[in-house]
Amino acid sequence: MTPSLTKAQCTALVVMVISPTALLIVPKTVMGYVAQDAWISLILSACAAFIAAWMLGRFAAEAKSGVPFPKWLNESSVRYLSPVAGLLLAAYYYSVASTSLHEFTTFISVEVLGTTPKIVLKGVAVLVLMYAAAKGIAPIARISFLVLAASGPLFLLSTLLLLNIMNWHKILPIADHAWNRILLGGITPLGWFSEVAIVLLLAPHMLRPKEVTSSAVWGVALVGIELTVTVLQALFVFGPNLVQSMEYSSFELVGLIEVGNFIERVEAFFFAFWMMTAFLKLSLFFYGAIHLLETTLKLPFSRSPLLVAMGMLLWLDTAFSWPHDMNQDLTTNTNTVVLLVFNLALPIALAALYWLAGGTKPSKGGSDA
Amino acid sequence: MKQGVKLLALLLLLSLTGCWDRTELNELSITSATAIDRKDDRWIVSYQVLIPSVVSGAMGMKGGAQLPITVYSTEGPTIRETIYQSTLESPRTLFFSHNRVVIIGEELAKSGGLEELIDVYFRNSDSRETVAVLITKGEGRRILEQLMQIQIIPGDGIRETIRTERKDFSALPFINMYKLAMEMTSEAKNAVIPEIYISGGAPVTSADQMNKTTMTSKLKLGRLAVLREGRLAGWLEIKQALGANFLRNQVKSTVMSLGCGKGESSKESAIKIINASTRVKPVLQGEGEPIRMKVDIKAEGTLLETNCKADLDKPDTIKGIEKQLEGEISEVVRNGFEETQKLKADIVGFADLIHRKHPKQWKKMKADWPERYSQIQLETKVDFTLKRLGLTSKSFKKMIEEGDDS
User: Fold this and answer.
1) In chain B, what are the domain boundaries?
2) Contact B359 A173 (CB under 8 A)
3) Residue A46's closest CA among A191, A168, A233?
């Protein structure tokens, strides 16, 4: 394992981990709770996420460059927790990859490829993920940075093209809902923000692991801005009532872009771009599951057999575990609990135990590169 | 081994082609307009379908040439089943992504089937929410059958007509499916749809009828249908619709005519109004007291035509015209608003306004809003500035009179 990630690449990876799925689910879920006050919930949620990102970043910054997270944990004061934490996180990353792949293929199926069997869509996606995981984290990071750089102007362009149909008065009345409800509305986005915990996996790959805290906070800030602007766009265009019934309001929005008779039906362009971000997220989680498994279990063979086995498992799991496409409860409520437990509770508990037990103990160090 | 991997990679590429969803252009029926009618508990959906070979080959139509469109209808118990019934009579699959307008039959609007129609649009990705929505008296199919001379595809023509009207005359709003859904889910739950009708005599449905300089009938935009809780409640005449549009702050540009002095009934001057903006401020009075709405309209304009003798070089004359037009706009707004009050249909968004400005009071008055709306007192203040007089300052009539005097 050769550390190669820069701070900017790590920030891009944090954004790609949170943004693709949150962009689909957050507007509908949060407006379902607090209608036009959704942006307040989001800002509060982002504030809580900043604190979480800082804490997780500080913990991740303790990592040694080039030493995988489970191995570093194994050399620390909480080494007895290393196998459990490694396996739990591997299971979690696999689970997120599986759920996100299901959401991704459902979206593709609903919006674009309605007749293509989903088992084929999932199979093709799994092949891409296997290829990405085989190449390692460096190419995923480089592509993530390029996609992040391109997404800024694209986001700005979509906002500008929608300006003429926006009505900012729809934000009123502000704070119309009780504060406990506004806070409740922030829980689902917090679940997605908590995916910043990926920095635990990324820090050892960084050239300077100490910079991971800054990457985590910047990543959350960028996604916070993106989600808040997306929610405001949907609110200003559709109003709070309509968004609550829209599965993919972010894409409904770009479907409205019309400039005369020559710029219309541009959503295909945005679909294509979003698909890139979704593949990056899936690749990262699939890579995470593979990486954690091979380092926790100290597998004596090369990555290829594990990749093939996990790829097959992911394909069959996503192909047969979801009898219905609509899993609203699972993808919002249950998923939020899982996200908060594995991204916040588990790492924070590890961090607390790590610091209570005296941090990193002198070790022989080393690398499994 | 390496060759085996390459072969496998090549084979895998086959799975990326998306063969299942491939669609050939010659397998599609591209609809340019759709009409939805309701008869008892049955849906009747009519389609204006393009004939691509004619559209691409014959931009200028000759007498006896094939028409670029064909119209047919299907009937069924639900909208989507009705659409699928078309497979029984058409060799091609209906394709709605290029559908430009949806015409709603009056009976459907009366029976309250719009919710189902909107559901179809929001549930299916092949139907676009940007489609323009219009309403017609009688059956919608008749509108689809009517041909247009200037625009080869009538569906396109209808959409462009309403867009042009909104841009240049602004009496009728451009309503598309998502705006209709937004209005129907607003606080007042009322909405509007512009009317389209066939003006004149026998409908023009064949190429022979088209091959004349004057057609026996034409498609024309008419009144504004008012929907209360998803059902047709009444109609606003074009001037009333303009008044309501001022209150909705949706007047982009329009033209109004004036007499030569206050109280003159014959109109001899025309003024183009631009940059109009309306601000409405609700004033809630005591319990049981009617709500007051302070309406502040600002606009600018250009003199387009006059046959009055007044001296336009004098500032007092200009001020007089401005005052006169301010009175005219006030009158139009008041008439339009009073008509909506009679219908107890808040189509101007006052409910949303009160909800935004006075959320606590709104909760109390929400239940009997139609009644409260019908009692609202409108206080209109118009500030109009005549910016330009055109390329001549005197009317031609005055020039002739001055010539006679000298």
Assistant:
1) 25-236, 238-406
2) yes
3) A191
Residue from B185, B281, B353, B363 whose CB has the most chain A CBs within 10 Å, to mutate: B185
Within 8 A of A234 by CB-CB distance, chain B residues are: none
- Judged by CB atoms closer than 8 Å, whether chains meet at B18 and A116 is answered as yes
Q: How far apart are CA A245 and CA A255, in angstroms?
A: 16
Report, at the CATH architecture level, how domain B238-406 is classified. Answer: 2-Layer Sandwich (3.30)
**Rounded CA separation B149/B207 (Å):** 10
Pairwise CA distance, residues B216 & B183, whole Å? 37
d(Cα A108, Cα A118) in Å, to the nearest integer?
9
For residue B100, give both structure tokens. Answer: 């430009």
The residues on A that touch B, with CB distances below 8 Å, are 110-117, 120, 123-124, 127, 169, 172-173, 176, 238-239, 241-242, 245-246, 252, 255-256, 258, 264-265
Query: Residue written as tokens 């507007």?
Result: A27
Question: pLDDT digits over B293-328, tens only?
Answer: 999 999 999 999 988 888 888 889 899 999 999 999
Q: Is the separation of the CB atoms in B154 and B96 below 8 Å?
A: no
Q: What is the number of H-type helices and E-type strands within chain A?
A: 16, 2
Query: Any idea which of A267-281, A349-363, B382-396 has the lowest mean pLDDT?
Result: A349-363
Q: Tell me which residue has tokens 């409908």.
A: B203
The predicted-structure confidence for B142-195, as pLDDT tens digits, reads as follows 999 999 888 889 999 999 999 999 999 999 999 999 999 999 999 999 999 999
